[in-house]
Amino acid sequence: MKSSLSAESRRKMILSVVLAVICIIYVLPVLAVIINSFKINTYVKTDTFAIPAGEMWAGFANYIKGMTFGNYPFWKSVVFSVIITVLSTTLILLFTSMAAWYIARVNSIFCKVIYFLCVFSMVVPFQMVMFTLSKTADTLHLNTPWTIPVVYLGFGAGLAIFMFVGFVKSIPLAIEEAASIDGCGPLRTFFLVVMPMLKPTLISVGILEIMWVWNDYLLPVLVLDINKYRTIPIHIQYLQGSYGTVDLGAMMALIFLAIIPVVVFYLTCQKHIIRGVAAGAVKG
Amino acid sequence: MRKKRITNMNSQIRQTRLWSPLFLGPVVAAFAIGFVWPFIQGIYLSFCEFKLIKDARLTGFGNYLKALQDPTFRHAFWFTALFAIVSLVLINVLAFAVAYALTQGIKGSNLFRTVFFMPNLIGGIVLGYIWSMIFDGILGRYGTSIVMDSRFGFWGLIILVGWQQIGYMMIIYIAGLQAVPGDMIEAARIDGANKWQTLFKVTIPNVMPSITICTFLGLTNGFKLFDQNLALTGGQPIIQADGEFVKTTEMLALNIYSTFYTSNTTSKGVAQAKAVLFFILVAGLGLLQLSYTRKREVQQ
Question: Same domain for A200 and A236?
Fold first, then answer.
């Protein structure tokens, strides 16, 4: 009995070591970005995995160069990314939760049609609508960072409505009835009674939308006027696209700067992110 | 009493309906702009010849014929299909293995989970450039590069997408594995099943819902891949076949994009027809695959 126990614990030890090795391999790409962001451009290609020292060391020159690199200031891309992500997520959370509650409670033919279309929209790839959507957005002047959230609300409504309707249906009606008997109208019932109960789903949907909008490349590049407005992914893509050769050291500096907020966000809200992702996966 | 309750509910719903413009209005308007109208217009334009939308005129199925005869589109289809299948199998097997290892109660499970999931939050474009630097750093020693050989591009994309998505699938598998009743596994062990028998006869049938979800996600993600493809190779290298230039590592989504925005010889109608075919493929595959795996799930 004792020997089988120690065999079991030895097995677990080996498993731990194997996973630790995989873990180290897993973070290597990020480490490669960091070391190359301090390396002089010509050495990035020839000595990719060397620690920048001696003549390879570029210091913060790559970071300073990266700020104005590509004929567009990097801080502006960051600001537009933040504006678009915050506005779109807020808009989606507010309006889709309201619509989902209405759909789940009223359940008229019209509601059923909308719900069906939302579920349907989840299986439609973006390429199907990208050309016509960007033209429609142009016509309606939705091509600025302040108005593009409307496009995100439209194209992203499907998953959010689907998740909210599923949750609202699990809330017992009796609570809302009680609120109604106490004299709450629909507006107060929703904002004071239903909304607080929706909190876990609001966080899950919010996380999914933030991850989508922050990293999205194709929708903003087609909708926005990219000479005026860029987001971080557009900025990174156009470093490579605008010239034949690109300063890889400066590019890695920008990539590192772009990863920092993502990692900080991940480490601070890890629990919610993992729960949100697991909840969002049910869309299959 | 019951009657009173029903009338109360009805009046509540009637009252709520008065507020429908506020509750439904914004979403319906945005959904019409962002999805319904572009979708309908997209279907219509796939039967038209046009450069701008205004000059569109109906031409029937011509665009679809041209799309199906286009060697670049056909090549992109086979490349994408192969990529989707290889990445689907590889990602799911590895993600399941990692999830299984992490649910054995070993030390440091939380740290491992944190690290494995992290790449998922980095966007496709950024991922593409990180890996193109790494692959070029390795291949550069042999005097070649990721954009020189389509085999490099293919396996490069597999590694990149594996790095990104294994952690994501792992999370779904962990949730599934934790929901397997412990007494069921205990009972199998008492009945004399060994570890592998328990895994294949008890654990795997019980996580079938997770497998359904992950297979579906893996397949559609593989077919829809765009950002990573654009940033890693951009379709390079280009070869000449039957008098046409074919980008050998171009996937379907990127092929549709380049037909719309970079080629100037063909009409945009062909690109829209490709997009419709792409939509039918992705939606059809998803539904087919879903109904197939659902049958094999264990009812609890």
Answer: yes
Cα separation values, A242 from A218, A246, A264, B132, B146, Å: 17, 9, 30, 17, 20
CA distance B22 to chain A (A): 9
Tell me: pLDDT of A29 over 70.
Answer: yes
Domain coverage including residue A121 = 74-246
* Judgement on whether residues A108 and A239 belong to the same structural domain of the protein: yes
Domain assignment of residue A13, yes or no: yes
Q: How far apart are CA B43 and CA B141, in angstroms?
A: 49
Look at residue B290 in the predicted model and tell me its pLDDT.
65
The CA distance from B41 to B57, in Å, is: 13
Ordered by start, the domain boundaries in chain B are 2-64, 66-295
Please check whether residues A10 and A141 belong to one and the same domain. no
Please tell me if residue B200 touches chain A, with a CB cutoff of 8 Å.
Answer: no
A91: three-class secondary structure by DSSP: helix
A36 CB within 8 Å of a chain B CB: yes
3-state secondary structure of B246: strand
- pLDDT of B94 reads 93
Residue type, A43: Y
Task: Give chain A's domain count.
Answer: 2
Using the Cβ of B283 and the Cβ atoms of chain A, whether some distance falls under 8 Å is answered with yes
The answer regarding whether domain B66-295 maps to CATH 1.10.3720.10 reads yes
pLDDT tens track for B86-116: 999 999 999 999 998 888 888 888 888 889 9
3-state helix, strand, coil in chain A (%, to 5): 80, 0, 20
Q: Please check whether residue A275 lies inside any domain of the structure.
A: no
CA distance B206 to B181: 9
User: With 0-12 CB in 10 A as exposed, 13-18 as middle and 19+ as buried, what is B200?
Assistant: exposed
Whether residue A251 lies inside any domain: the answer is no
pLDDT score at B300: 40
Query: Residue B280's pLDDT band (boundaries 50, 70, 90)?
Result: very high
Helix segments in B32-149, DSSP class H: 37-45, 62-69, 71-102, 109-117, 124-139
Q: Find the mean pLDDT for residues B150-164.
A: 91
Cβ-based contacts of A168 with chain B (< 8 Å) = none
CB atoms B42 and A218 under 8 Å:
no
Q: Are residues A78 and A57 in the same domain?
A: no
Domain identity same for A116 and A230: yes
Q: Is residue A55 domain-shared with residue A120, that is, in the same domain?
A: no
